[in-house]
Each structure stands twice: as C-alpha cells, then as structure tokens.
Amino acid sequence: MFVVCKEHIEIAIDQFVDEYEEAPDIYDLKDVKFTAWEPPATCERCGNKPQFLVI
Question: Which helix (H) or strand (E) holds 13?
C-alpha cells in the first residue's frame, strides 16, 4: 500500500507492479474513507499532501 501525491503516482504504480506482479487499485483520498484508518499527512516520497491510495 502506498499513499502518494500526484507527482509520485507513477512511481508508486511501478513499484506496486514490481512487487506484486499485478495492477494496483488506485483511489482518490478525497473520495474514500475507512473507519479504522487515517491517511498520513504527507506523501511517502516527499512532504506534499497525499492525493492517492495505491493498493
């Protein structure tokens, strides 16, 4: 699972495919909510606000 900004979405997709050998599901964080999970405040690769969940 990766939580990234728009700038790093392609890197997260490539990394997911390399690790799991299948295409990920991608969710816009403003459209998805989980009761037991809060997204991190920053992108995993930089300090920007995250926009996507790649799972």
Answer: helix 9-20
Q: What is the pLDDT of residue 33?
A: 87
Question: What pTM, to 2 d.p., does this model score?
Answer: 0.89
**In this structure, are residues 15 and 21 in contact, taking their beta carbons and an 8 Å threshold?**
no
Alpha-carbon distance values, 36 to 8, 33, 41, 47, 48 (Å): 25, 9, 16, 24, 23
State the pLDDT at residue 48.
97
DSSP-assigned letter for residue 38: -
CA distances from 9 to 1, 18, 35 (A): 12, 14, 24
- Across-strand partners of 2? 54
Nearest-angstrom CA–CA distance, 20 and 26? 14
